[in-house]
UniProtKB/TrEMBL annotation:
Region described as Disordered: spans on this chain: 146-176
SUPFAM superfamilies the UniProt entry points to: DNA/RNA polymerases, Ribonuclease H-like
Protein name as catalogued: Reverse transcriptase Ty1/copia-type domain-containing protein
InterPro entries reported for this sequence: DNA/RNA_pol_sf, Retrotran_Ty1/copia-like, RNaseH-like_sf, RVT_2, SH3_retrovirus
GO MF annotation: an example: metal ion binding
Biological classification of the source: Eukaryota, Viridiplantae, Streptophyta, Embryophyta, Tracheophyta
Source organism: Taxus chinensis
PANTHER family documented for this protein: TRANSPOSASE, PUTATIVE-RELATED, TRANSPOSON-ENCODED PROTEIN WITH RIBONUCLEASE H-LIKE AND RETROVIRUS ZINC FINGER-LIKE DOMAINS
Amino acid sequence: MNRTIMERARSMRIHAGLPLYFWAEAVSTTVYLINRGPSSALDGGIPEEAWYGKKVDYSFLRVFGCEVFVHIDKDDRTKLEAKSEKCTFIGYGGDDFGFKCWSIKDKKIIRSRDVVFNEKVMYKQKLQENREESKKEYAVVEDLPDGTVTHESVQEPTQQEPQTPTVRRSSRVRKEPEHFSPSLYYLLLTDSGEPESFDEAMQVDASKKWEQAMDEEHKSLMENQTWDLVKLPEGKRALQNKWVYRVKDEEGGKKIYKARLVVKGFAQKQGIDFDEIFSPVVKMTSIRTVLGIVAAEDLHLEQLDVKTAFLHGDLEEELYMQQPEGYEVKGKEEMVCKLKKSLYGLKQAPRQWYKKFDSFMMEQGYIRCHSDHCMYTKKFEDGSYIILCLYVDDMLVAGKNMQEIKVLKKQLSESFDMKDLGAARQILGMRITRDRKEWKMTLSQEEYIKKVLDRFNM
């Protein structure tokens, strides 16, 4: 099988004309296709169908290495810029991400569903076009002799060959920033000094604080009636889970220790454990617009946080999970948790939470913005209004009438476990500073910059 994979991957890469460093994408695509083709081990059956129990959809299969146009979101371009970017198709990103495309311009991988394919043009053809264009530019701009331009004076430098390696060296230089991407991803996803497992949390100096954080999380899960303990039914499986630990820096240097029980959702199977997973979050453009309105009209700006937001979403599937480590019920260790509510880590958890919150806002008479489904507005008889922005479990509430904002806060607290943070001071890593007398608002990311500098000892 290994030889089969390597032979097919080599053929696909060479046919597309892709450089050798795309071997991993070629191998990944080969395996993807083999799993969706007839197998002699299954008497001609399809491995993918045997595993998931449903028919394979072949309608989205495309030629490896072909030209593809990836749609550019309107938030990432101006009105006069192109609506799509020309890329090369290099694989499948799975059910969540659609297709993997290589940006020739930016030297990076883009994952998108909103694409248009041109399977008649391959990477090697496009590269050749670029080289020819480069040769023409070189001849006309740099090597024209002084004096009268003649046909011969232009033609001679066009036939020279050194331009091709120049283009290749340029592409390799532009690819260098990818070397730092693992560190940057690690920086964004983790913080120093935080335990990676339950055992580590119980052995560090701050073990008492982590234990208290886990107790609070477990208490919240129990109060929310997140699961029932049952025996695992025959033919069913129990998903694993883990504790995730984070230290949150508050204003004034105060540190808050947080623990969260997270389901290992990567083991879920579509069509069995979940169906739809998409859930929107408020756009940064919307947040900046609202902050601009707040500053211009001197509105109140309040912030709220939903405690264990995903627990409020109701599950539509039958799911089982192992008991959380350190909190197994004595005498019932062999039993599992039958989930009644969503948990962090479940693929459908964000969507279920959003559906419940959206339904609540509609019941309170708020209108969902057409261009941003996580921004809600409501007008009142006195001419005042409220704008609410939702980013997963963080909320910004802006309005002229503080009394109406208090009414909304009360309504939210009656339906969800809320934490009123008062006047907004920080959202999505941005520090908010206001001088209402001067009608000024300042946004900064000082803490984020400090973390980056500390991480790289700068």
